[in-house]
C-alpha cells in the first residue's frame, strides 16, 4: 500500500505559503525567507497545483486567503512554529521557554512591537515570542501564555484585564490633515478603508452616518485587508484613515498623525483585553503581563 506521505506537498512549498499567509504580502514573505519574490511565488503556485485549488485571491495591491487557504493556514501555521521550536532545541540544546504573546496583526504591529524594546532592555534574560494572528487561537493548545483580545466585555474571560476601549477618529499625516480637516475638506480626500465587514464602526460609511453625513462619498477609496496597512498608508500621505486611538496614540503624540478635532466616536461595547492562559503563570510571564498593564497606565487618559 502506498504511504500517505507520498501525497503530502513539499515542505518548501508549505513554508512559502505560510510566510505569505502570515504577511499577506509576497514581498515581505520573500524578505522573511531570504528568497526572491519570484521564488516565493513559484512555491505558492506549486502548492496550489499540488492541491488543485487556489489558496489566495489576488486583488489589486492586496492578497486574501480563499476558504481552502484559510483551512490550510490554520493547520500549518502552528505546526511550523512547533517544528521551528523543535529544530532550535535540537541545534542549540535546552533553552529557556520563551514567553509567547498573541494579538491580531494590527495590534501587534501598532501597539506591541513599538513598545517591546523597552521590555527587552529591562529584562534581557527573558525571551519573548510574538505570534501575530487574526485568528482566535486556543492558548493552551498553541502553547501561548498571553493574548490581547479585541471583544465585548461579555466575551472576555472573567480573569481578563481591560486595557483600553475602542475610540475612532479620522487621522492623516500633517500635510493631508491641513487640507482634509478644514471646513468641507474631508470629502475632497482619498479614504483609506479596512475591508472587514465584521467591524462596521471601522468602515467609513458607518462613521459618516454617525456624523450625519450618510451617503456622502470621498474623491476615491483605497482598500486594505490589514489595519496596520491602513495606518501606514495614512503615514505616507495616501489619504485619511479611521484611527483607532489606542493603537495610534504614539503617532498622534509625536505628530506623525493628526486627528480631526471634535469627531471622535467611542465604541463602548468593544475593548482590548489582556488574557493569560494560566491563572498562576510563570514568573517571566507575570513580568510581561505586569509590564503590559503598566504601559497602558502610561498612556494619556484621552487615548485609552
Provide a compact summary of the structure.
With 304 residues, the protein is an alpha/beta fold. The protein contains eleven helices and eleven strands. The relative contact order is 0.13.
Please describe what this structure looks like:
This protein is of the alpha/beta class. The protein has three domains: 4-92, Winged helix-like DNA-binding domain superfamily/Winged helix DNA-binding domain (Arc Repressor Mutant, subunit A, Orthogonal Bundle), CATH 1.10.10; 99-161 and 272-303, D-Maltodextrin-Binding Protein, domain 2 (3-Layer(aba) Sandwich), CATH 3.40.190; 165-268, D-Maltodextrin-Binding Protein, domain 2, CATH 3.40.190. It has eleven helices and eleven strands. It has helices spanning 11-23, 26-33, 37-51, 67-92, 105-122, 139-142, 174-180, 204-210, 227-235, 245-253, 283-297; strands at 56-59, 62-65, 99-103, 128-132, 146-151, 161-172, 190-194, 220-224, 240-244, 258-259, 265-276. The strands form two sheets. Strands 3, 4, 5, 6, 7, 8, 9, 10 and 11 form a nine-stranded mixed beta sheet that branches. Strands 1-2 form a two-stranded antiparallel sheet. Helix 5 links the parallel strand 3 and strand 4 (128-132). The longest helix has 26 residues, at 67-92.
Amino acid at each position: 500500500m502506498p504511504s500517505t506521505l507520498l501525497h503530502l506537498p513539499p515542505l518548501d512549498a508549505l513554508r512559502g505559503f505560510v510566510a505569505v499567509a502570515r504577511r499577506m504580502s509576497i514581498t515581505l514573505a520573500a524578505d522573511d525567507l531570504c528568497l526572491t519574490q519570484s521564488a516565493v511565488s513559484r512555491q505558492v503556485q506549486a502548492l496550489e497545483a499540488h492541491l488543485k485549488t487556489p489558496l489566495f485571491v489576488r486583488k489589486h495591491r492586496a492578497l486574501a486567503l480563499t476558504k481552502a487557504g484559510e483551512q490550510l493556514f490554520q493547520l500549518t501555521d502552528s505546526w511550523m512554529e512547533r517544528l521551528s521550536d523543535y529544530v532550535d532545541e535540537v541545534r542549540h540544546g535546552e533553552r529557556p521557554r520563551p514567553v509567547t504573546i498573541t494579538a491580531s496583526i494590527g495590534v501587534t504591529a501598532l501597539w506591541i512591537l513599538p513598545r517591546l524594546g523597552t521590555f527587552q532592555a529591562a529584562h534581557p534574560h527573558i525571551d519573548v515570542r510574538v505570534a501575530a494572528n487574526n485568528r482566535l487561537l486556543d492558548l493552551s493548545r498553541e502553547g501561548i501564555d498571553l493574548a490581547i483580545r479585541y471583544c465585548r466585555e461579555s466575551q472576555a474571560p472573567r480573569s481578563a484585564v481591560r486595557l483600553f476601549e475602542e475610540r475612532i477618529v479620522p487621522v492623516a499625516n500633517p500635510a493631508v490633515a491641513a487640507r482634509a480637516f478644514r471646513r468641507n475638506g474631508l470629502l475632497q480626500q482619498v479614504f483609506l478603508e479596512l475591508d472587514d465587514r465584521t467591524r462596521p464602526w471601522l468602515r467609513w460609511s458607518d462613521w459618516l452616518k454617525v456624523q450625519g453625513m450618510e451617503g456622502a462619498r470621498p474623491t476615491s477609496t483605497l482598500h486594505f485587508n490589514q489595519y496596520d496597512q491602513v495606518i501606514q498608508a495614512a503615514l505616507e500621505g495616501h489619504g485619511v484613515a479611521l484611527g483607532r486611538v489606542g493603537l495610534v496614540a504614539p503617532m498622534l503624540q509625536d505628530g506623525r498623525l493628526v486627528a480631526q478635532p471634535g469627531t471622535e466616536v467611542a465604541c463602548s461595547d468593544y475593548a482590548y483585553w489582556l488574557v493569560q492562559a494560566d491563572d498562576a503563570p510563570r514568573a517571566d510571564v507575570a513580568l510581561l503581563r505586569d509590564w503590559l498593564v503598566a504601559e497602558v497606565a502610561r498612556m494619556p487618559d484621552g487615548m485609552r
